[in-house]
Specification:
The structure is a single chain. The protein is α+β, with helices and mostly antiparallel strands. Helices cover about 35% and strands about 20% of the residues. The strands form 4 sheets. A 5-stranded mixed beta sheet has the order 3-2-1-4-5, with helices on both faces. A 5-stranded antiparallel beta sheet has the order 15-14-13-12-16, with no helix packed on it. The chain starts with 10 loop residues before the first strand and ends with a strand. The mean pLDDT is about 85. InterPro entries: DnaQ, GIY-YIG_endonuc, GIY-YIG_endonuc_sf, GIY-YIG_UvrC_Cho, Ribonucl_H, RNaseH-like_sf, RNaseH_sf. This is Polymerase III, epsilon subunit protein. GO terms for molecular function: 3'-5' exonuclease activity; DNA binding; DNA-directed DNA polymerase activity. One of its GO terms (biological process) is nucleotide-excision repair.
Length: about 475
């Protein structure tokens, strides 16, 4: 029995679109389906292919079954936007992962100087809220779980019909109070800075990627990454009181942009690369000097292991087996050497920290075991030396050849491939709206090294030897 719907939104538009790719700025709509519902009754339906007048990848063609030839006689968006605008007018915009569909349509309208805004309702979030016992909530999962009818998956009108079926199901299954509470929770919004267009929040996707904050002069304030771009950006906007720097940054945000990635690894890699390249004002942790201080392992003429400090602008991957420490400053490197010397009773003369003749000063204090004057054998000293630097040294490369790491988003609409060798990213390939391959100079990067050492043990999926 259907619940009393008087407490629920009375005018809804169930919307689905298919596009040439993932970016609402650069890509275009190729298929749109709309079901307008008023007072629980379908009053209008719209099913239309759209000619994007730009190429799109074989992957999109295979997924949707829509080819460029299929769209030759279809209208462009400029021919149909008045009809679409009227269908959506005064409704709650309902879609699965609504930021994607809503963001695309806002950008399509914007190209014709039309400001479009609407309340939104995400059926993916609604499913998670009402059916929290289930793990997956993508559209295919809902179809299989509840037995919904969908003749052509990844065609816009058929997918929009699934959304209407889902909404009908929850109206039969749950009391209106529970649905209303779930909708209210989903539609909560943070305070938006005065100079930021409130509508920009509605364009942010709930997927992995990176985001950019700009001020009104287009200065880049910050680059961040997240598994859920929208959620992370909203947390910035709603927590500006937590620190003075955060408050200053949020106060100046005038524009937000983003790039979608296939997964967390792609977001981490892209953030690390772009922070160093673009040098945003509020990124501290990933902004690094072009110069690095390294500790390199050497062996003295008398057979004792030692370390020398070198200043480099880049590190050759073939040299990483000899590197036992990397530091952002000379002071940090020297302090580290002092710490290890004291903890492991290393010889300051062998480490180059004491230039006097004879035994080192620490030997007289009982802090050196006499390697400086040959009292301690090299074999015994070297074992302790290796133990001292074991935790901080660069780990050996796990593989005997380059590896390929493949990441896919939930719908496999975006696929990223990373070729990695000796902790260096040497090539990145992206497949979404088009195939692209980005060769990179194989230079060792400490941030990339940290990303890979944290992530590789957890990447049994999508990991291949080349």
């Amino acid at each position: 029995m259907m619940c009393d719907t008087s407490m629920l939104p009375q005018k809804l538009a169930f919307v689905d679109i298919e596009t040439t790719g993932m970016s609402p700025v650069y890509d275009r709509i190729i298929d749109i389906g709309i079901i307008r519902v008023e007072n629980s009754t379908v009053v209008e339906q719209y099913n239309q292919l759209v000619n994007p007048h730009i190429p799109f990848s074989p992957f999109i063609q295979s997924m949707t079954g829509i080819t460029p030839e299929y769209l030759e006689d279809a209208p462009a968006f400029e021919d149909i936007y008045p009809t679409i605008y009227e269908l959506l007018k005064d409704t709650v915009f309902v879609a699965h992962n609504v930021r994607f569909d809503y963001g695309f349509l806002r950008n399509e309208f914007k190209r014709f100087d039309i400001s479009f805004s609407s309340k939104q309702l995400c059926t993916a979030k609604l499913s998670r809220r009402l059916y929290s016992r289930y793990r997956r909530h993508n559209l295919s999962a809902l179809i299989n779980r509840f037995g919904f009818t969908c003749e052509h998956r990844h065609r816009a009108f058929d997918d929009a019909q699934v959304l209407w079926q889902f909404y009908q199901k929850i109206m039969h299954e749950f009391p209106p109070e529970k649905i209303t509470v779930a909708i209210d929770h989903i539609q909560k919004r943070p305070t938006i800075p005065n100079q930021l267009d409130p509508g920009v929040v509605d364009t942010l996707p709930e997927t992995s990627g990176i985001y950019f904050f700009y001020d009104k002069e287009e200065n880049l304030l910050y680059i961040g990454k997240s598994n859920n771009i929208r959620s992370r950006v909203l947390s910035h906007l709603s927590s500006d009181y937590q620190s003075g720097k955060q408050m200053q940054m949020v106060k100046h945000i005038a524009r937000i942009d983003f790039e979608v990635t296939a997964g967390e690894l792609g977001a981490l890699i892209r953030e690390s690369y772009l922070v160093k390249k673009l040098n945003p004002i509020y990124n501290r942790q990933l902004r690094r000097n072009r110069k690095l201080i390294i500790l390199k392992k050497i062996t003295t003429d008398s057979g004792y292991d030692s370390a020398v400090l070198e200043t480099l602008t880049h590190i050759d991957p073939d040299d990483i087996n000899h590197i036992i420490g990397i530091f952002p400053s000379l002071r940090r490197a020297k302090n580290f050497l002092v710490y290890l010397r004291e903890k492991y009773s290393l010889c300051e003369k062998i480490l180059g920290m004491d230039a006097s003749k004879g035994s080192c000063f620490s030997y007289h204090l009982g802090e050196c075991r006499g390697a400086c004057i040959g009292v301690e054998p090299a074999r015994k000293y070297n074992a302790r030396f290796l133990l001292a630097f074991a935790e901080n040294r660069i780990k050996p490369w796990y593989f005997d050849a380059p590896i390929k790491i493949v990441e896919k988003n939930d719908n496999e609409e975006l696929v990223e491939t990373f070729i990695v060798d000796k902790w260096c990213l040497i090539r990145q390939m992206v497949s979404n709206r088009q195939q692209s391959s980005i060769p990179l100079e194989p230079v060792f990067d400490m941030d990339m090294y940290k990303i890979l050492t944290r992530r590789l043990p957890h990447l049994s999926y999508g990991l291949h030897r080349t």
